[in-house]
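Title: Comparing notes on inverse folding

I've been comparing how different people in this forum approach sequence design from structure. To keep things fair, I'm posting one structure and asking everyone to reply with a full sequence. Here's the target:
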């Protein structure tokens, strides 16, 4: 950095990129296993990636990285345009069709995504990633030639992390054809390949949840919010696969509401004491000049980031994965923020997490003991927030939402401060980007297909 002749703006961007990279190494409070560090500040990472590309505008890898960051920050249509142009220029490239398929899937264009994945498989038949993505998009039959080929490839593959996609794809295929014994075997084998003999570190999980609660004792929370910011973002909390994307899509039918997806902006606003602990929060408050200025600073940063990306913060639905650790800070900084907690039968949640390989690889989801531990921690910390923030959190039961949608959605929209539209039932028809692994389910009408799904494997 010092060896280059840089303008002040260039230097700021470069140092910002370095800081983002360092911050992203602790990706998700020790809970994630991802192939590379994910940027905590997607916006700054995208700025840095564009600056880097400007130095070598024809560099394919740098252009693909810009497209990847655009896609991760919900700008999927622009990402798709870049990726398609890259494929036109490099028609034999083996992995570009996979990236395009992912972007098409996020836009709900599943038939086109399947065509792209089949192109990828023709070019690289041994691509475990392509086969896994294909399996997630289609329903197999026994006589299906793709089923036969997938079975051959998966059985021939070694038990290595890079071959986990074959095992997960074959497990899904066996599930489709109703062979639960073989499906369960390959789900377990896929998880074993991902973990590679490692055991998730549960002590970190428990410690961070306990420290987050200790950092926001009753006397601090009881003092109430600091400041009077009027913005009203909506946090949707819940274990993965508990229905958080469903509730996000339903809320997004309201006038002015916007799906933000799994944002990292609240954690970014709290980076000065992340993950929360009594010592780190005390240092942050002291550095900020007191309680009031500390929590105003968090609110200003969070709202500023939301407005920069989405144009406004009111009605912005944020379902970031680690937001449960930062509820105390949000409650103190933003008096009008709404918090919804989605709960679902724990066995259905556990089974759904185990059988799904997440986009950003939640490490705890590949082992039954650690799944149970995560769910226990999540319930305990949400119980703490609800106990000490009365009236600030509404719990929504997934099964009750399905059995009484009119009554439950009336409560949800009222609590969120949103007008419930008469056509909220058609949430599944709403066009838009869905980044989470639930994107296929939330593009269907309300249904009970997933209720009790674990019992086939009891």
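Reply #1:
Here's my take.
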């Amino acid at each position: 950095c010092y060896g280059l002749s840089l303008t002040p703006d260039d230097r700021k961007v470069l140092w910002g990129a370095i800081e983002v990279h360092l911050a992203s190494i602790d990706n998700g409070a020790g809970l994630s296993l991802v192939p590379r560090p994910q940027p905590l500040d997607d916006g700054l990472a995208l700025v840095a990636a564009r600056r880097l590309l400007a130095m070598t505008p024809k560099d394919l890898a740098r252009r693909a990285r810009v497209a990847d960051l655009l896609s991760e920050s919900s700008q999927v249509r622009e990402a798709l345009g870049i990726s398609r142009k890259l494929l036109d220029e490099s028609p034999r490239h083996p992995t570009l069709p996979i990236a395009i398929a992912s972007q098409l899937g996020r836009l709900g264009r599943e038939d086109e995504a399947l065509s792209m994945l089949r192109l990828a498989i023709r070019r690289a038949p041994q691509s475990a990633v392509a086969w896994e993505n294909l399996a997630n998009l289609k329903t197999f039959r026994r006589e299906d030639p793709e089923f036969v080929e997938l079975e051959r490839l998966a059985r021939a593959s070694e038990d290595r992390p890079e071959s986990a996609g074959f095992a997960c794809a074959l497990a899904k295929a066996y599930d489709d054809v109703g062979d639960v014994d073989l499906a369960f075997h390959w789900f377990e084998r896929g998880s074993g390949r991902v973990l590679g003999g490692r055991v998730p570190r549960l002590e970190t999980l428990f410690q961070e949840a306990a420290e987050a609660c200790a950092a926001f004792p009753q006397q601090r929370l009881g003092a109430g919010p600091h400041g009077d910011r009027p913005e009203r973002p909506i946090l949707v909390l819940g274990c993965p696969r508990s229905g958080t994307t469903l509730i996000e899509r339903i809320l997004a039918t309201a006038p002015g509401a916007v799906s933000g997806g799994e944002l990292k902006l609240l954690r970014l606003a709290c980076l000065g004491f992340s993950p929360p602990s009594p010592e780190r929060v005390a240092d942050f408050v002291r550095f900020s000049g007191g309680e009031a200025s500390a929590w105003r600073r968090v609110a200003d940063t969070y709202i500023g980031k939301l407005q920069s990306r989405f144009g406004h913060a009111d009605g912005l639905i944020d379902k970031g994965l680690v937001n449960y650790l930062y509820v105390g800070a949000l409650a103190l900084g933003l008096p009008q923020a709404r918090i919804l907690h989605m709960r679902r039968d724990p066995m259905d949640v556990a089974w759904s997490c185990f059988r799904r390989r997440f986009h950003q690889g939640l490490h705890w989801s590949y082992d039954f003991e650690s799944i149970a531990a995560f769910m226990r921690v999540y319930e305990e910390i949400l119980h703490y927030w609800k106990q000490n923030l009365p009236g600030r959190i509404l719990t929504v039961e997934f099964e009750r939402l399905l059995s009484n949608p009119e009554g439950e959605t009336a409560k949800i929209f009222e609590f969120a401060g949103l007008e419930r539209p008469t056509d909220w039932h058609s949430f599944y028809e709403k066009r838009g980007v869905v980044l989470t692994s639930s994107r296929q389910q939330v593009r269907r009408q309300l249904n009970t297909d997933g209720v009790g799904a674990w019992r086939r494997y009891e």
